Amino acid sequence: MVKTTQLRRFHVGIGGWTFEPWGGVFYPKGLAQAKELTYAASQLTSIEINGTYYGSQKPESFRKWARETPDGFIFSVKGPRFAVNRRVLSEAGDSIKRFYDSGLLELGDRLGPVLWQFAPTKQFDEKDFGGFLELLPRESDGRALRHVVEVRHDSFKVPGFIALMRKFSIPVVYAHHLKYPEIADVTGDFVYARLQQGSDDEKTCYPAKAMKQWAGRAKTWADGGVPDDLPRVDEITKTPKQKRDVFVYFITEGKVRAPAGAMALTELLEGKQE
Predict the structure, then answer these.
(1) CA angle, 18 as apex, 43 and 207 as ends, to 5°?
(2) For residues 232-256, average pLDDT
(3) Residue 252 to residues 128, 149, 168: CA-CA distances in angstroms?
(4) Could you give phi then psi for residue 35, rounded to 5 degrees?
(5) Which residues constitute the domain of residue 164?
(6) pLDDT of 133-152, one tens digit each?
(7) Is the CB of residue 211 less than 8 Å from the CB of residue 265?
(8) What is residue 172's DSSP assignment?
(9) What are the DSSP E strand ranges found in the chain?
(10) How many whole angstroms separate alpha carbon 45 and alpha carbon 207?
(11) pLDDT value for 271
């Protein structure tokens, strides 16, 4: 069982918690599905909720998920597709409002960043994208809200996009993916990485050497630095050095070894592995 208080700057996990092949591999054999979230939250420090992308959830569902996780556990939550899959992003206001009014804030202190994930066909248009960022709520009842953006088209690999994200202080997802652009520029006060090149043939999703590299990069991010071995779009502008929260998710195609990867990285960050 992880102690989340030891990982206040590191939040490491997986996408979702319901996946049948995890039975007997990640979940103990015979574990009831109703107890899977509680078990997953005892082994990990964060989970990325994907279901919110496809449709609305009920307030009681958010409350239930919060109750079933320990203090210090954090959910990141995908924003709805109705907001991001549109030609004019600045017209997404109603979809964004409905999303927050659906009961999302019932997660309480378990609520972490909202992930706004764009399709590979969505290209960068500064005015269009800036209009969308303007719509994202910054606070609710005095509580700060966090946002992170994942883009999947190479047109975003321009300094203008990085400058726009820095203007709004919203991070760009660093995606370790074979097809999507890798953008390791730090543009906000936390870092969000999605590791998507792992393999089910590896016991810990990524090989041991790669896992140590990811642990080192996560520590660099947390200490306020920028890893020098990851590609940035803007290599001229200096990144302010400040302590940051770091979110890392193992999101692999096969998924079977993703939990093992998250647990192995957590152990490295806690200093339990050499």
Answers:
(1) 55
(2) 93
(3) 31, 19, 30
(4) -105, 5
(5) 4-270
(6) 999 999 988 889 999 999 99
(7) yes
(8) B
(9) 10-15, 46-49, 74-78, 111-117, 139-140, 143-144, 147-150, 174-176, 190-195, 245-250
(10) 21
(11) 84
Q: How many CB atoms lie within 10 A of CB 146?
A: 20
Which CA distances in Å does 229 have to 73, 183, 217, 218? 30, 12, 9, 12
Report how many domains make up the chain.
Answer: 1
User: Predicted confidence band at 272 (pLDDT cuts at 50, 70, 90)?
Assistant: low
Query: In this structure, is the dihedral angle defined by the CA atoms of residues 3, 113, 252 and 41, taken in order, positive or negative?
Result: positive
Dist. CA 121–CA 4, nearest whole Å:
38
> What burial class does residue 50 get, using C-beta atoms within 10 Å of its C-beta: 0-12 exposed, 13-18 middle, 19+ buried?
middle
The CATH number assigned to the domain holding 40 equals 3.20.20.410
CA-nearest of 137, 133, 163 to 149 is 133
d(CA 164, CA 136): 14
Task: Please give the model's pTM, rounded to 2 decimal places.
Answer: 0.95
Residue 263 per-residue DSSP state: H
Nearest to 145 by CA among 120, 115, 122, 102: 115
The reported pLDDT for the residue numbered 8 is 56
Instruction: Express each pLDDT in 22-58 by its tens digit.
Output: 999 999 999 999 999 999 999 999 999 999 999 999 9
> How far is Cα 236 from Cα 102, in angstroms, rounded to an integer?
42
23: DSSP letter: B
